[in-house]
Each structure stands twice: as C-alpha cells, then as structure tokens.
Write a structure and sequence with these properties.
With about 170 residues, the protein is of the alpha+beta class. The chain is built from four helices and four strands.
Amino acid sequence: MKILGLALMLTLAAGTSQAQRVHTPAAGTPERRLLMDALRLRMQRELNRPMIFEVRQLRVLGSWAFAEVVPKKPDGSRFDYRGTPLEQEWRDGVVDEASVALLRRVDGAWRVVKLAIGPTDVAWWGWDEETGAPGRCCRIPSPCSNPAPGCAGRPCGAVPSRPCRARGSPPR
C-alpha cells in the first residue's frame, strides 16, 4: 500500500511539473491573442494610440506571463510617440522601442500586473519578488559573471551598447 501511495504521489508530482513548464503560445492561438489583447488595451490606454505588437518574447508559466513587445502602428510601421504622455522622453532619446509586461490570469482573464513602456534599463528586475511571480517566467537573467565595463551588477544584456564578456557576444 505504501508503494502504491508513493507511486501515486510521484505521478501527481510529475503531472504538476509538466503543467508548470514555461511555454510560448504560438502566433494565432487563442491564448496568445488573449494575452496580447490584455496588454494592448493597457498600453493603448496609457499612450492614447492604437497599436499592434511585434512580439520579441512571450513566456507563460501557469497563471503568469512575461511579454517583451515592440509596439507598432496598426499598419506595421514604427510607433510614433508624438502626442503621447512619453513624447518628451521619446524626443530626449530615453524611450526604448521595446516594452515589457508581467501579466497574471485572474478568474480566467489576463491582467497586466506590471508594465514598463520603453524602458532603457532592466525595469523587470525584481518583479518576481514584488509580485510573487515565478522568476522562470519573468525572464530574470542572472547577473554576468564577467561584465563589460559599466555593466557591473546588471544582468547579461542589460546594457545594449556593451558586450557581455561572459557570453562572448553583444546582447541582441
């Protein structure tokens, strides 16, 4: 009986482990559409502009999702920040093209928990600790073991203009 109980526990644990794998919903799937719609509504509300996304990264783990997107005009051209609350920062060159968000599924609907529009630094650093989200979902890279000058203490790839010596090549 103990062996049967142990086997059942191991089977349940394996099933839970399977369900807790990070995955990226494919383009066109209902899950991805729901995630992008939730993010789009929030960003359109913040920027007062319609948009579509170029998805750089989308990671889902259980009820949490992390997205790195590049907003585009509905015709697919570069997003224009003129007339938005970020216009001056954009003109000053301190708005990156990508935005990041942490979403959580609550009562079957995806909601944006954290959002950084155009951050020029590692805005998502610590989101896992602040929200209780799993770090594997939040694309929290580990700090470089051998950073380039000026990168000390930041995660690999955090300073786009400097190569990460630990990885041997510049971050994307």
